[in-house]
């Protein structure tokens, strides 16, 4: 997530839960009952948008654009099929991520850092010893666009990580650009409204690994948050993502469909659209059986480029609801605020 909560651990990351011999978790260190996940969650009824029509005649294209626009306004979230990224590329990215997290701890700890400004960093929310396991996740984050500027800093191990993850990053970015065009078109701003700014924009990959958790009902993988991006595209190895329904506090599990990708409206798209699109609040839940990986591609404007509300969407009835902010503003906020404690950058940029 573009927001995380410290990164230190006494665990030797990559060992199985059994090898770590984790004790049971004292109640006082688990998340409060009101924030715990159900082990039998309701399933979300979220749109699955078939992107094939985007390449077809104008009538087909406008149906797909309407579907995307409606999903962004109603849910801030949708899933996509026929997105053009082959199963082999998706599987390659996932397997290189699994291989990375399977490496011996020393190899991963080379990238360990708490500094949120670092372009490549490894971290963990398995906090400070065996007691405090509110959040049960290890992650690797790295910048990805332009690939040639960053790929040389990515892990050299496993040996195919750069190639397999690099291929996925390039393709998923192309897809994000296409989706952003469709979304700005659905807002009446035209398909090229953000193209130039997105060309120079950031792509940050959050590769998350949630090892099996002995008590998944007492912890979470990631706390509730919305992404500080324009648009996020996520690929997961198995279910675990939950989104908040329109009624606050109602969590729904995103159902699994083979080959499908998940699209989240991020805070910056909410700002651009003057609140017409809502960034989706989501969290990652855990299970006790298998490791889950999610590969999250966050797309935003350049580091110092402020996202402002489109003036075309502001009038007397719809006054500007947000102040402009850049990705760097967010990182600065993150380095001094603990998002796991409920601090949200999004709230600080709302004018009303
Ligand atoms: O693991 C997931 O499905 C969610 C990850 C996420 O929300 C993030 O990295 O921002
Ligand atoms: Fe997220």
TrEMBL record:
<dbReference type="InterPro" id="IPR026992">
    <property type="entry name" value="DIOX_N"/>
</dbReference>
<keyword id="KW-0539">Nucleus</keyword>
<dbReference type="Pfam" id="PF14226">
    <property type="entry name" value="DIOX_N"/>
</dbReference>
<dbReference type="GO" id="GO:0005634">
    <property type="term" value="C:nucleus"/>
</dbReference>
<dbReference type="InterPro" id="IPR050295">
    <property type="entry name" value="Plant_2OG-oxidoreductases"/>
</dbReference>
<keyword id="KW-0963">Cytoplasm</keyword>
<dbReference type="InterPro" id="IPR027443">
    <property type="entry name" value="IPNS-like_sf"/>
</dbReference>
<dbReference type="GO" id="GO:0005737">
    <property type="term" value="C:cytoplasm"/>
</dbReference>
<dbReference type="GO" id="GO:0046872">
    <property type="term" value="F:metal ion binding"/>
</dbReference>
<comment type="function">
    <text>Involved in the regulation of shoot development and salicylic acid (SA) homeostasis.</text>
</comment>
<keyword id="KW-0560">Oxidoreductase</keyword>
<feature type="domain" description="Fe2OG dioxygenase">
    <location>
        <begin position="200"/>
        <end position="301"/>
    </location>
</feature>
<dbReference type="GO" id="GO:0016491">
    <property type="term" value="F:oxidoreductase activity"/>
</dbReference>
<keyword id="KW-0479">Metal-binding</keyword>
<dbReference type="Pfam" id="PF03171">
    <property type="entry name" value="2OG-FeII_Oxy"/>
</dbReference>
<protein>
    <recommendedName>
        <fullName>Fe2OG dioxygenase domain-containing protein</fullName>
    </recommendedName>
</protein>
<keyword id="KW-0408">Iron</keyword>
<dbReference type="InterPro" id="IPR005123">
    <property type="entry name" value="Oxoglu/Fe-dep_dioxygenase_dom"/>
</dbReference>
<comment type="similarity">
    <text>Belongs to the iron/ascorbate-dependent oxidoreductase family.</text>
</comment>
<dbReference type="InterPro" id="IPR044861">
    <property type="entry name" value="IPNS-like_FE2OG_OXY"/>
</dbReference>
